[in-house]
Amino acid sequence: MTTQFPKGFAWGTATASFQIEGATKQDGRGESIWDRFAATPGKIITGETGDPACESYHRYPQDIALMREMNLNAYRFSIAWPRIVPDGDGTINEKGLAYYDRLVDSLLEAKMTPFATLYHWDLPQKLQDKGGWANRASIDAFVRYVDTITSRLGDRVNHWMTLNEPWCVSILSNLLGEHAPGLHDQKIALQVAHNILVAHGAAVRAIRKSSPDAEVGIVLNFEPAYPATDTEADRIATRLAHAKYNEWFAGPVMGRGYPQDAWKDYGKDVPEMLPGDLETMAASIDFLGVNFYSRMVCHDPSGGMGTKILNQRNENNVSARGWEIYPQALYDLLTWLHKEYNIPKFYVSENGMACNDKIAADGQVHDPERIQYVKQHLEMVLRAIDAGVNVQGYMCWSLMDNFEWAFGTSSRFGLAYLDFQNQKRFLKDSGKWFGRVAQANTLVD
Ligand code: FCB
């Protein structure tokens, strides 16, 4: 069994603009749907907003210092659309562009490869006012924004990720209402899912023009589905959950279109399509970013056609967020994607664990559970590589504790601890360990 990761393997961490930058009203940044959502009472359990978050808009040199301490050679961050185009469409904000210039230049100076995500959820509020992603005008606005930022940074950034987690952008945000804009409408959610995948494909084409040598991909979140029992009802429930959660997004991107059984199950709520959409969504990509945290276990108590899907997790083996720890699913996922879609290259673009971290008497944060989690998942990456899957990088979520969406700063995922009272950041035990792994390019104790 392989013990070394491939030569040149990208060792990094991942963050997102709204979760770390703060400075939401500075230097001409426009309002995003997350500013509006977080300011709405009851939406964020801690009552916090995106200010100050980690103040990375000003403290990014400290962030880079942490990454250097961990010997990392890659950094996945996201660009805030409302910093670049405050109204979503129209005037470009030079100060916003200048911020990402500084960030990228500093990363390159520190010998780190920038992986830039173009959309990690901070849609300009002005676009939401006109229907958001459910309005196809947002597709064109996105392409113009993408063209602006990739033309500006394309001489230095060679890895672009169009969208982060379309399932969250659509279902979690527009059907389940847990994320901005907080809607509860399946028809809208499925139209959003469709339009953003069209926007992804259109953006890929735009980037091919502005940066012909760059690698372009998309980041999808997956939850492999397993039946709770070996009954036919549970198998059907599992199949449908897999189709709705995983294939609904991977299928169109990989040129397979939508899974037919899920399409049928959604009935009249299926999205409207224009001729050419399926071709656009299937624009050829260089890599797939895989975000993986947990699995689904599906059970249909009605014994019927699997429309009722319950998640039966093993409650004894969960993270501080209640997500079951099941590393085997990462191996199953990577090998399935490899076989099913023949994907040329993968990055694990997010994987990590929320823990109830506390500063110990010695002033350090001891987080053996997180070390174990990351280690077990890296073992699965090695197994997948052994099985012929071309995985070229692993980006741990996250560099540091940050504004974890609806959970505010109460849910800590960082390899570095952040003291939100004074913004001090320092490596947890897991960060120190991850740094040794990155340096050795193999798993260490
Ligand atoms: C993912 C998001 C990321 C972070 C982690 C914990 O779904 O992409 O921003 O919230 O979960």
Describe the structure.
The chain has 445 residues and is an alpha/beta fold. The chain has 15 helices and 13 strands. It has an 8-stranded parallel barrel, surrounded by 6 helices. A hairpin with a 4-residue loop joins strand 12 and strand 13 (424-427). Helix 3 (56-69) runs parallel beside helix 5 (94-109), helix 8 packs antiparallel against helix 9 and helix 13 runs parallel beside helix 14. Bound molecules: beta-D-fucopyranose (FCB). Beta-D-fucopyranose (FCB) is lined by residues 16, 19, 164-165, 168, 221, 291, 350, 397, 404-405, 413.
What is the arithmetic mean of pLDDT? 96
Instruction: State the end-to-end distance.
Output: 18 Å
Total beta-strand segments: 13
As a percent range, the share of helical residues equals 40-55%
Estimate what percentage of residues fall within beta strands: 5-15%
Features:
binds beta-D-fucopyranose; 445 residues; three-stranded mixed beta sheet
Compile the SSE list and pairings:
Elements (H helix, E strand, L loop, with lengths): L9 E5 L2 H4 L12 H6 L17 H14 L4 E5 L2 H4 L9 H16 L3 E7 L5 H4 L8 H17 L5 E6 L1 H9 L11 H25 L4 E8 L2 E3 L4 H22 L6 H7 L10 H5 L5 E6 L3 E4 L10 E2 L16 H14 L4 E5 L17 H19 L4 E7 L18 E4 L4 E4 L1 H12 L5
Parallel strand pairs: 1-2, 1-11, 2-3, 3-4, 4-5, 5-7, 6-8, 7-10, 10-11
Antiparallel strand pairs: 8-9, 12-13
Helix pairs in contact: 3-5, 7-9, 8-9, 13-14
The protein binds beta-D-fucopyranose.
